[in-house]
Description:
Elements: H1 17-27, E1 31-35, E2 38-43, E3 49-54, H2 68-73, H3 78-81, E4 97-101, E5 134-138, E6 142-152, E7 158-170, H4 172-179, E8 188-200, E9 214-221, E10 227-232, H5 238-241, E11 258-260, E12 264-268, E13 275-279, E14 287-292, E15 297-303, E16 329-333, E17 348-353, E18 364-375, H6 378-388, H7 393-397
Antiparallel strand pairs: 1-2, 2-3, 4-9, 5-6, 6-7, 7-8, 8-18, 9-17, 10-12, 10-14, 11-12, 13-16, 14-15, 15-18, 16-17
Amino acid sequence: MQRFDITENSVSASYTFADDLAFLNKHTDIVLLRDGDASVAVAPAYQGRVMTSTFDQESGPSFGWINRPVIEKGLLSDEDRKGALEEHIYIFGGEERFWLGPEGGQYALFFKPGTGFTFDDWTTPAAIDTDRFKLVSQTESSAIFSHDTELINHSGTKFKVGIERTVELLDKKKAATLLSVELGDGLRMVGYETDNRITNTGTKAWKPETGLMSIWILGMYNPSPKTTVVIPFKTGDEKHFGPKVNDTYFGKVPPEYLQVQEDTLFFRGDGTRRGKIGVNAQRSKGIAGSYDATGKVLNIVTYNVQDAPEGFVNSMWELQDKPYSGDVINSYNDGSPEEGKPPLGPFYELETSSPAAALEPGETIKHVQRTFHIQGSEEQLNALTEKLLGVSLDLIKSAF
């Protein structure tokens, strides 16, 4: 694997939302969505990405991890990109971004035809890396973006794709309804929804035997030594439901970073060891979360559970026997990519994916993800973790 100098790509988690907003406004245009004190900062130049959010625009925390050195440098020339990490991806950060899968496999979008599944050949498509999305319309609390692109997968199949992405801020009343919980006066919250759609704008149907794609939404958050990811899942026989967790994306995750119980898994979000886990659609309950015990912040991510007649794309970096047996929920903990090298962030991620999209010309698939950051007393947050994640706050805090 080629070595890259990424020692500058670290950032403190101590920035406030106001700090991050001021920084972002110096380097790119930002669409700011507001509802009272709650705010969401969206960057059209970064594919309509939610860069960060807060429940208090003036002095509140900034929940998105932002890679300041990469944003400061901006887009590099082709010559300057050679041999740099930016030849493969611009890691701008941001707490909720639009991507497309699969990453690896014979139908991969990140590996050109004829290449091997190595990092040297891994390249993020421009449509989800450097292309700017068009701001179609905007209100005080929502914004709509669009983009048209062409893609080719590892098997040589070409796709014409229309993308539409809507970001909408959710007030506390609507958030409580969507989550079916009480959100009392003592809780501070910011919540938002992204409605993500891809349309087959070509003349040929997208078929499983030549490769399907999916909508893939990833959130990058600031880690802390006391942050724990929590994913509840359905119990049942592995022959029917599959394994409880896929923990072999970047090598098996050790027990000091992953604890799997009967119907819940706990995964560290501390940014100290590189690892990734996944939960399949048969196991998923449509929800994932994390808890930062230092900041007393509960983070919740949900998505629209829908039928998946063609399954979910598989992003493993290999020729696959089952290319449509991928995961619907993922979590990634950043860390050193190899001995003696610093992490990319550090950060941790919560991710969700749509089903594989077998679309006729003109057809569209939609994937909706909702993100909530809630701060309050441990007593209030415990009521929410028990209701939403099926475990007590004490159990989350004592998992590691």
